[in-house]
Amino acid sequence: MRLPVWRRNQDRELDEEIASHIRLAIADRVERGETAEEASHAARLEFGNVVIVKEVTREMWGWIALEHLAKDVRYACRALRKAPGFAAVAVATFALGIGANTAMFSVINAVMLRPLPFPEPKRLVSVTEVDQRRGDAGSSSVAWPNFFEWRSRSKAFEQMSAYHERAFTMVVGGRPVHTPGAIVSADLFATLGVQPVLGRGFRSEEERAGSDVVVISDGLWRSEFGAAASAVGSVTTINSRPFTIVGVMPGGFRFPFGVPAAQMWVTCAEDARTDEPGDTPMTAERGAHFISVVGRLRRGTTLPAAQVDLDAVAAALAREYPDDNGNRGVKLTPQLESLVGDTRRPLVVLLAAVGCVLLIACVNLANLLLVRGAVRGKEIALRVALGASRRRIVTQLLTECVVLSAFGTAAGLLLASWSIRFVVQVSPANLRGLDEVTIDRFVLAFTAAVGFASALAFGTLPAWLESRAEPRAGLDESGRATAGRRHGRMRATLVVSEMALGVVLLIGAGLLLRSFHRLAHSDPGFDGSHVVTAKFTLPDNRYPYRKQIAFYDELLADLNALPGVQASAASPLPLSGLRYSISFQLPGAKVPASEQPSAAFGMVGPGYFRALQIPIVAGRDFTAADDDAATRVVVVNESFAHRYLAGRDPIGQRIKPGLSTTEKETPWREVVGVVRDVRHLALNEPARPTYFVPYAQGLISSLFIVIRSATPTTVVVDQVRRAVLRKDPELALYDARTMDEYLTLSVAPARFQTMLLTLFAALALVLTAVGLYGVVAYGVAQRTREFGIRLALGARPREVLHLVLRNAMRLAGAGIAAGIVAAAFATRLLGSALYEIRPLDPLTFAAVAATLVAVALAASFVPAHRATRVDPIQALRTD
């Protein structure tokens, strides 16, 4: 019944009656498929009372939206249930893309995005020293005296602390236990904002020599002290000295973020000790740069302001100590950014790669929807003819896409939960946050957002095209053919796009594979096969300088007496992650200490070069006669000889290392040998100038035992352990590894990036092949009548086969060409990750192009062959 037109009436009862009629009218129109806006507009025209119509519409808006959404979702589920094949393929395709993205983002979230587990982590910054002659490339660790000056003079920091990792041997129940730990300044826990849950932290006066106090981790407290509260205040033996346990840190506390994690912390009183009377402690050595510094900015202080503050302090120190600090600057970096370091670029590249995989999956889904839209052409045309608006059609089709993406996202999350284990297993062990990789709320929110955005990405174009279809075109055969051709061009464009993305990923993976192969087969400069290494720490209080040398001499003599064993000692060990750099003087070059050149430095025992089979290219090896009483000697590598002794016979030349010894005056050393270059820090880094001294003439740290033997590794390690315990039952052997393990660890970051990018590229290749197959197969199905006519008129099956393959290869060729152009720019991001391979390597580009051509032929051959088997009579009977 049509009601009369009312003017605005103040009578409340009449307004309520009008509102009731309006509600019924709007609900009725919504039930017939109209949108809320359409129903509201019609109500305005019918009732005329604009104010009441607006109020009623606002009341009903939420109900209308929910009702529409529920109906659309139910309809979408029914539509997917009626097409199980389409639904299964679409969900699987989307799950692969979203699962890979979720797994990769979980790693990036844990490593790069998750805040440090300390209060107000954004105020924590890393402070390093900088050699101003080399800029940022000269960033290095810090010397204790410089840290003390920074801490006392800086005004920008609330606290500033220093630390370095150190291995300890703790005696528990009469047995030695190797315990990783750290030497720290007394205010480290205050700087981080974390205090012990039992006992206390360190006091400032406990930084002085003789303060033997220790704070232990929750894990060590539980495993070795039975979680007894009485452990705090008790005395335990660490490095053969009694230490008082003053505190226990909370469970989960971890700092530094090394591998393995520190289990105990002692103050820098440990570095304030001296081995011999009159020696300078490490806390007073301004030239010894080996500690790390973390600071907490004052509230309201910005990083640039703190940089200016410390620059002023560094400039003052350069004036006061020109020999040691003449070229020393300071660099501040957010602590999280400092920890992420060089892993940022590879992870970003991998995230971009997995994003391309998802994009390819979306293109495939868009193609599937275009095909499905062509099949549903009559349905859409009929709905439009019955009065459904284009907006209503688009809304319904996008709802189907969102429902599809919801199922795909759920499957992708399940796939990601399995994939994370694999990603963690192949990740480098020293990647920070690796043990915290999980699908948390932030990752779930990311996945949901990406899933929804992807649904709109792959659903908008097909929905828009279907909504534009005219009813007559959808119901008429010729109209459907025209729409099919229009959709066919769109599908072809999408296939070209996904093939181009696949080419970019495959070329990137190919470059990394070739680079990794060269890296893994590069010559490190030594032969690590059948070489076992291990380490132990001699406590300073029981083993002063000369006793340490005697201990190593006797132990190596015992090991060399074993059948088939070549044993020696060295520090640092190649590829172990350790590197020492010490300055030196050349004859006639009188320069301040801050201007002196520096080179990598190593302490080795007699037979070290023979044990690692490092060739001696000139002169001789060290011998047992090169002891503390003999003439000071040195062996240099080829890079050192070429850079610093060029044009002269290296043998007999002299250098003076800046090496502290028991002598009052640092002596000159005579070069007695030249050895082949060794890639010490990493296989992808060139060899640096290096010089070696016999450990008997310059021992400054504990040594690695290096043993070459054909005996199985476990037997060799057991032999070394028994030999060490026979000499001192309080020593714990640790870091027992083969040199092959060090080689494997050295290439772990490259292997991680290469393996994952190759996996993503393979996934992209499969999706691309499926997409091309789908387009060609659908094209063949659409042209069945045409192929029947061709065959009826005498065309040979071979000609039909060539026709289909030629069309498919046009698409593939366009995609490959576009991908090669895009890859020429994209692969520049991999420049720093490649080893002896150029980003525009022609062999890789050609191999990928050939691979894609072969895959395109294989993907299109089956539907092409099907076209040759069309029955002309049956084809002509089809409408």
Topology overview:
Layout: H1 12-31, H2 36-47, H3 50-82, H4 84-113, E1 124-131, E2 139-140, E3 142-143, H5 144-153, E4 157-172, E5 175-184, H6 188-192, E6 198-199, E7 213-216, H7 218-225, E8 235-238, E9 241-248, E10 264-267, E11 289-297, H8 303-320, H9 322-325, E12 328-334, H10 335-340, H11 344-375, H12 377-385, H13 390-426, H14 441-467, H15 471-475, H16 477-520, E13 531-535, H17 545-560, E14 566-571, E15 580-585, E16 598-604, H18 608-611, E17 616-619, E18 633-637, H19 638-644, E19 654-657, E20 669-675, E21 690-694, E22 704-708, H20 713-727, E23 734-738, H21 739-746, H22 748-782, H23 784-792, H24 797-826, H25 842-868, H26 872-877
Parallel strand pairs: 5-10, 7-9, 16-21, 18-20
Antiparallel strand pairs: 1-2, 1-11, 1-12, 3-11, 4-5, 4-8, 4-11, 6-9, 7-10, 8-9, 13-22, 13-23, 14-16, 14-22, 15-16, 15-19, 17-20, 18-21, 19-20
Helix pairs in contact: 1-2, 1-3, 2-3, 3-13, 4-11, 4-13, 4-14, 5-8, 11-14, 11-16, 11-22, 13-14, 16-22, 16-24, 16-25, 17-20, 22-25, 24-25
